What we know:
The structure holds 2 protein chains of 2 kinds. Chain A is mainly alpha-helical.
Amino acid sequence: xxxxxxxxxxxxxxxxxxxxxxxxxxxxxxxxxxxxxxxxxxxxxxxxxxxxxxxxxxxxxxxxxxxxxxxxxxxxxxxxxxxxxxxxxxxxxxxxxxxxxxxxxxxxxxxxxxxxxxxxxxxxxxxxxxxxxxxxxxxxxxxxxxxxxxxxxxxxxxxxxxxxxxxxxxxxxxxxxxxxxxxxxxxxxxxxxxxxxxxxxxxxxxxxxxxxxxxxxxxxxxxxxxxxxxxxxxxxxxxxxxxxxxxxxxxxxxxxxxxxxxxxxxxxxxxxxxxxxxxxxxxxxxxxxxx
Amino acid sequence: xxxxxxxxxxxxxxxxxxxxxxxxxxxxxxxxxxxxxxxxxxxxxxxxxxxxxxxxxxxxxxxxxxxxxxxxxxxxxxxxxxxxxxxxxxxxxxxxxxxxxxxxxxxxxxxxxxxxxxxxxxxxxxxxxxxxxxxxxxxxxxxxxxxxxxxxxxxxxxxxxxxxxxxxxxxxxxxxxxxxxxxxxxxxxxxxxxxxxxxxxxxxxxxxxxxxxxxxxxxxxxxxxxxxxxxxxxxxxxxxxxxxxxxxxxxxxxxxxxxxxxxxxxxxxxxxxxxxxxxxxxxxxxxxxxxxxxxxxxxxxxxxxxxxxxxxxxxxxxxxxxxxxxxxxxxxxxxxxxxxxxxxxxxxxxxxxxxxxxxx
Lengths: 291, 360
């Protein structure tokens, strides 16, 4: 029973990591850029929801606040691409890494300035209610996290592989110049991708804030989610979810069966092992070029 | 307007381009040596910290700026140098010069040990692996409590060279000169390295691994050498940092430190020794500038202002001056040297398009 309970809490945490990792992968898959500010975007999304929904702030109804946060973060993501990243279009990935790290610091500062550095929790209708299932006590918020993550991953997977826009996104990352020749508006696609990633970050943030509390440094969680994305195979959507779940599950079990201090180490140790044995990740996206 | 004719092949690799150049750097060094007679103890401490940052920056610059291997994990090697130096002096009773040297050498060897598996990774994935290394450092320090003192940390003993006690608080000028001496030696060594075949191999690898290989450069050996040398210098910076902080624990060597180090050399200008120094000066000056503004305006402290100002600077530099402060100054110098013949598009970047690394 204890193992099951650990599994469920690990799954719920893993889904949050998976959701942030989805944001990473989405941007990587569509623009070949790596967004190190994804964790901070998640944090900002959660704070937007808190600012709109909590009684101390604007006090809107929960769902309206969520929709507002998602829309707001989509706007933030779009404007980050439009105002900053578009100027270094076509430059190496490392430049983008440095730029997004810096942007992440700025977002953290803004959040700290507006919402303060005290941990805040998002008031929501699910808080405190439990579902009992075959002797297991599940928090409804944990169930919600798992369900929303699975839905979102499935939707994005279908979107990328079936829809016209999704395929255009993949093309524009594989070869920007060739995509231009095929008539794909690469820059506009980049903007759209960043808006989508911002929206996903907001959803992850809302789920995170319903489960626990949020403070400006919560964005550092992004690094763990980043590890998850790499473990799963950078560029693969199901891989991101799987990596997130692996990381999420490894933590409570390591804390329970090895020692408390080791739960922090496990994700990164896992990452290093995967990078050494299978650098392309579990769901490899590296393909040989056809000549 | 100035002409510089090349009359001899040695001119390309001379330490100083001409007499004026040598005099400039000489007077700069003289000014740096005389600094303790001008500044008070607090500002001298800040200057010392700038010098230590410059050493660490040169360590990372060698790896990232010249060999082209991006590392987000250099805080790990700062920590390694810092702890090894303190442990060797505390537990093994080694004299400071020996412990200091060994701290660098051990960090360098660990750097080579990291490089060997890292040879399989490149670009983004190398950055990720070093990032993981950096995240692990903090926890490993806590777990390795018997040596590192865990959460409580260690205190660095007072260094002593040939009977001269260099106490960071009682004799800040001596400590400053110690750091400056190390920094000057590292700078000279770095400059010399760049003139050697190994240094040119680093640059060749950075610019194109394939053409470097075609020119007969062993990728594995050169990358391992880059990691080793870079981590050695970083380890020395870490050892000095330990003495500078006096007492330290795992919280000093976070991922933020790694990131700050990387951002610092980007601001300074990747691919130049100058860049490491400029970056260190900027990092040292920002808090002072904020203090000045705060005194003038009289507002209360805003947490995180320093980092975010720094980040905004980074964004501006990456967008408008990708070669950093050094690049900007070089451009001004070229403009002056060529006046009035400098053309606007002289430094224009070529338009480039990105292709995925997932298809090979």
